[in-house]
Specification:
Blueprint: E1 2-8, E2 16-17, E3 20-24, E4 36-42, H1 47-60, E5 65-70, H2 73-82, E6 86-88, E7 92-96
Antiparallel strand pairs: 1-4, 1-5, 2-3, 3-4, 5-7, 6-7
Helix pairs in contact: 1-2
């Protein structure tokens, strides 16, 4: 199982998705800039499901911002391709409109 932490300036919904477990909470990490966050456990072949979750939440709000923290370079690369306005750091990426 792979792990990522998604933080946002907007509330993040809990979803039951195939091969992905999204749950509230997690441990706040010093790099996290936003007050709402969820832990995401996913299988390595479910990156597209995590990406789809982010896209759906992104479309729900007017001015969302996300921070995705993970050691999975494949997930970070896929997110960069899917969102136009991203800023990538060593182990996380920031998405904004």
């Amino acid at each position: 199982m792979m792990y990522c932490l998604i933080a946002s300036n907007k509330p993040l919904p809990i979803r039951y998705l195939p091969k992905v477990h999204v749950r509230r909470g997690g441990f706040p990490i010093e790099d996290i800039q936003y007050s709402f966050f969820v832990e995401v456990l996913y299988e390595s072949n479910a990156i597209d499901v995590v990406e789809d979750y982010l896209l759906k939440v992104y479309k729900q709000y007017k001015d969302p911002e996300f921070q995705v923290k993970t050691e999975d370079g494949n997930l970070l690369g896929q997110i960069e391709k899917s969102f136009q306005k991203t800023e990538r750091f060593r182990s996380y990426i920031i998405i904004s409109k």
